[in-house]
User: Which sequence fits this backbone?
């Protein structure tokens, strides 16, 4: 498992999201998943990458609470801590 | 974005050409499952021939595939066991690569009028015919989604849509499979993964032994179907050409439910 730092999580989340369509420049902390056209299936794929890398699962109700890229990063860092 | 589907399954159009990844057919030691395994192998897929108890049958299927120039491996595992999926997929991944084609075929019957179906016989049929299909499908989806290619074909039955006294448990399981097929299909369609069902009518297999003769009269085609009739449809739904077909149930019944 990779060490969970804010930077490491941010990098992995941005990489994973960029794979799913949105332009890298659009993927900022404040960007909403809706604005990036990232849907629930995309979030499942992102969370699989995060799980493999950091051993943190993002599922179900937790995932539904995440509106922005920053929400996701903070959730993963907090959950791993 | 990931590779387009055409790149994932390389050399997709030629009969017998090598493919990247593998096909898994559950309950493939005989009957419809064996015919599906043989068909997919002829189409170039290395095939995992899953079986629960009939190792001899599974080995015969593997041998026949190998003699025809294909690749196959027999994989023991009771799909009704909630823990069955991971070992099955891991064994196949090690041997041939990720599962890109899944045929959920394993099924059981325990016929009786509803009044006389015991809880055990209800549960056993639901576990194998429905819950196992869900678990195996769930395990298959991640690699398929990553590959932006996947073909899942669930073997349902015409009794999933039409009454057949004596099969309340079996009918419920097959109707469940048809409903699940549609929803999972909608969930993953934009990843290049298709999920379809094939609903056989009267097909001559060990599962239908004893009921075939009297029922043939009701079939417009005036014959029972063969496992190969069903496998041909599975082969189509598993093919590259069927990329835009998802969430459907293809009835294969000689006109029985027409």
Assistant:
């Amino acid at each position: 498992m990779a060490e969970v730092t804010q930077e490491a999580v941010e990098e992995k989340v941005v990489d994973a999201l960029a794979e799913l369509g949105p332009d890298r420049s659009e993927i900022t902390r404040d960007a909403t998943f809706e604005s990036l056209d990232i849907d629930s299936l995309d979030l499942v794929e992102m969370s699989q990458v995060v799980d493999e890398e950091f051993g943190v699962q993002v599922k179900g109700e937790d995932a539904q609470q995440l509106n922005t890229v920053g929400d996701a990063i903070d959730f993963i860092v907090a959950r791993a801590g | 974005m990931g590779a387009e589907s055409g790149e994932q399954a390389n050399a997709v159009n030629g009969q017998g050409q090598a493919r990247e990844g593998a096909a898994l057919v559950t309950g493939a030691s005989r009957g419809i499952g064996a015919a599906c395994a043989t068909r997919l192998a002829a189409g170039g897929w290395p095939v995992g021939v899953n079986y629960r108890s009939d190792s001899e049958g599974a080995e015969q299927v593997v041998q026949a595939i190998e003699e025809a120039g294909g690749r196959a491996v027999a994989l023991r595992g009771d799909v009704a066991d909630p823990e069955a999926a991971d070992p099955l997929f891991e064994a196949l991944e090690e041997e041939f690569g990720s599962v890109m084609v899944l045929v959920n075929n394993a099924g059981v019957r325990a016929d009786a009028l509803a009044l006389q179906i015991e809880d055990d016989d209800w549960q056993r049929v639901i576990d194998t015919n429905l819950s196992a299909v869900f678990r195996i499908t769930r395990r298959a989806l991640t690699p398929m989604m990553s590959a932006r290619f996947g073909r899942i074909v669930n073997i349902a039955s015409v009794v999933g849509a039409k009454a057949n006294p004596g099969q309340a448990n079996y009918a419920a399981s097959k109707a469940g499979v048809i409903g699940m097929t549609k929803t999972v299909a909608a969930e993953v369609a934009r990843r290049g993964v298709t999920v379809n069902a094939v609903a056989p009518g009267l097909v001559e297999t060990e599962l239908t032994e004893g009921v075939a003769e009297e029922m043939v009269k009701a079939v417009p085609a005036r014959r029972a179907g063969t496992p190969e009739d069903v496998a041909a449809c599975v082969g189509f739904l598993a093919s590259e050409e069927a990329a835009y077909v998802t969430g459907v149930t293809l009835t294969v019944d000689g006109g029985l439910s027409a």
